Request: fold
Amino acid sequence: MKINNILNFTTRSILSVGIAMCLAVSVPTYAAELKIQVQSDFGQLDPAFWASQSDRNVIHAIYPKLIEFKSSKNWEWQLSSAESIEQIDELTIKFTLKPGLMWTNGYGEVSAEDVEYSFERFLNEDLAAPNAGDWSPLKDVEVLDKYSGLIHLKEPFAPIWWSTLPYTGGAILSKKAMEEMGGKFTTDPKVTAGPYKIESWEQGQRTVLVAHDGWNGEAPAFDRLELIPINDPKLAEVAFKAGQVDITQVAISSVPGMQASLSDDELLEVRPSADYFWLGLNAENTNLKDARVREAIKKAIDVEAIIEGAYFGIPERSTGLVAPGLIGHSEEAQPPRDVAGAKALLADAGITSLNLELELQNSTDEQTAALIIQSNLAEIGVNLQLNVHESGTFWSLGDEKGVNMQMTLKTFTSPPDPAWSTQWFLEGQAGIWNWEWFKNAEYEKLHYAALSETDFGKRAEMYEQMQKLMDESHSFVWLIHPPLARVYKSSINPGLMPNGDYKLQDFATAN
Amino acid sequence: MAQRTNKHTGLTRVRNVIRKLCSTPLGLFSVIIVTAFFVVGITGDWIAPYDPIKLDIRAKLQGPSSAHWLGTDQVGRDVFSRLLVGTKVASYLAVTAVSISLAIGIFLGMIAAFTSRWIDWSMLLIFDTVRSFPTLMFALAVIALFGPSINTIIGIVVISTFPSYARLVRTQVLSLRSMEYIEAQRAMGTRLPRILMRHIFPNVIGPVMIVASMDIPLVIGVEAGLSFLGLGVRPPTPSWGTILNDGFSFIRNTPWIVISAGLPLILTTVAFTTLGERLRDILDPKLRR
Reply:
């Protein structure tokens, strides 16, 4: 019996050591690895079709672009795969690629033909790309030589430098590989040339990115990144505390507690996103048609209390549609709460009591904000009914309710150019995304003029004027630009865009 | 004199039942909790120390203290006051929904038992069809159609539970219908409504009440579950489910909100279930034997 036990033990020991040695030989070791929490798995890596923040993160890391956003707190771009790029005139941009940038899997060097293919495919009607708007003013790309080309526009298009070239629309794909795949793919691009390439993808579990040795720019500091999808920020916080990830998003409600309990090797960063959260009042609704009623509601709402109650006092009060750091951001503060003024306006409108409905989603932040709004409006005699919806139902309300919609709490996401935000409030969007049914001829004129205006200063003035027009309509109560909070190990210096999005290739070790 | 004797006998019977209920620790526990539930349900508005819907942002998420026994929620409302008034909502729902369901169930059950076979079968088919709806899915569908409110929840509970009572009553009535004393009443020319009310109903109500007491946790659970999902009682009305919903987001740093609403929910559910089982043990003659 004892001999058997000894033999078994010896056999097990030899096997264990053998397996361990095999693993040590077969598993590659990396100089520097990082585990990063992402909110969800990516679902679409085609730049013409991407939909989520997670798609965006990976697209920025695996495809080359002529220019890219800097990892900083301000929206500024820098050269990336382009050696040079310049706007020759309002309708022409000349670029020259850096030589020596190689595609993965032996697909050769990145060339101007790849740029031509990548940008022009957005115009392909058969592709029916949802992100075709990124390149809607593109006429064509003219290839001058292997590395140079001219981007010809049909009309001046200012957002090209903010939300197209340095953003997802500027991603360059391999013409040869794409043609082999029939011009379309979803999650397997086959060939990439960015600072990182995909080593493996276990759907819903992890995505492993490794440094691409054909990248001719500055080599990323980390050889290997593991992107781990954890949807619930509270769970992600637990994963961070347990050392399962090196950086994670945290819920805003956790920020005060986390700030108080941060250890020496942890850092917390909160950044305002370009997104905007506001209370919308439908000017076409019978109960809200009178501008005095809308203004009274606007005056009665205690935005500071909403920020304190729902967002723990962390974000700044929004001054308008355009977030700080973006062109056209207004520095002019919104007026403070004025209950007496609100009551006077309602009295002037001949209203003693009013029943209204507010539609919102079932997130804690929105429900808390809605409770405060309900309490604020009760003070001026407005009885507010809160209609809480899950996300899918909420976003179908525009079709369902039309002008019967009264008040809504909404957050819209925004790329780093205000044109993508102002477009939703055009007359043609009324009832679709413009649930305020805001209609203003001057606003329309300014929107289209700003799209073509290449003078930075003049363009900024136009967006400021558009926000003034929105304020004068009293249909919008701007609340906040929802912040994004991340906690990370102090040993790393995270690559973050101004809105808190990851810029994976810019992650570095802290000095 | 005869009436007084009947009343006396009835009171004695109730006293006996209560005495038997309280004779075991579990029975006593259930009687105390159920009594407390209804007492707080009736008096919640008056005994609540604070206005349960008044916001005080500066006092948000405070821990339990002498000023706020169960702390405050994310907008500074007193959780204890919300719990008391939430009990009123739970008891109102439980009593209203179960009473309406009972009334409909007893009425339809008696009709099914005393009507033609064809109508009886049709009614049985309807009862079984309605009973086969998955409660939560049915609730979500109704709320999607009519919107969340207390009345919608009452409607959902009534529709989900009345077939059980109707089926039970029908079975009881069918067995009573062939009893000699009922046959005698019919032979004497007593009218059917009188037979039903004076001779059938008193014999049926006991078992039905036992089932009803066991259904009360279901009603409370449905309300809490739907309100937790944001599909039940409309804010700012407090209910146990909305308190749970409010507290869930802050459970790591401020767990007392969830505990404050979760504990009464568990205790009440256990108490009503235990009470039902004890009542069944005491009142069911077969089990008594």
Summary: The CA atoms of residues 63 and 194 of chain A lie 4 Å apart.
